Amino acid sequence: MFKEVFKNRKGSVADSIYVPIYILTVALTMFLAYYIWVTFVQNFTPLATNVNISSTENLTRVMSDITVSLGYLDYMFPFMVMGLLLVSLIFAYKTGASVIYSYVSIFMWVLAIIMSVVYSTIFEAFALEFASIGGNFVIVSYVMTNIKWLCLAWAFLISVVMFTRNKQEDQMLASSERSFM
Questions:
Q1: Which whole number is the average pLDDT over 89-115?
Q2: Distance separating alpha carbons of residues 127 and 141, to the nearest angstrom
Q3: 46 lies in a domain?
């Protein structure tokens, strides 16, 4: 089953735009989820004081444990980002591309940089709106602030991997050139 899922999957330079969209979506979802949770805890805890003391203590403990666990999402974010980038890079490995697509690649580099600046600006505005939450997600904020450099390096790596041929591919190209002459 695993082979069937990844059978015809190939990476492309366009991944340098789609993956940052996914990263931005995950980062914004983390912020919103944490904000909703903190608001829920702040509004629900005073209501829970009318219940007996042992239930209140248990509820407060559970809520604080969940809050700490949600804070660990900040430490998992770089692993998710690197995992997405590595998967795309591995998929691009056997794609192979013609030199003609190098122009498309350069265009996609420029587009990726422009879009990553847009994503960075969107995240900055979002983080300013939820300033109290932004302080809890230092790593996410750092990655999203520097996503343009991450995108540029990653798009460059994908392009290098796609346009690098191995010996077998060079031999095939040489034999096909000889057959035309």
A1: 73
A2: 8
A3: yes
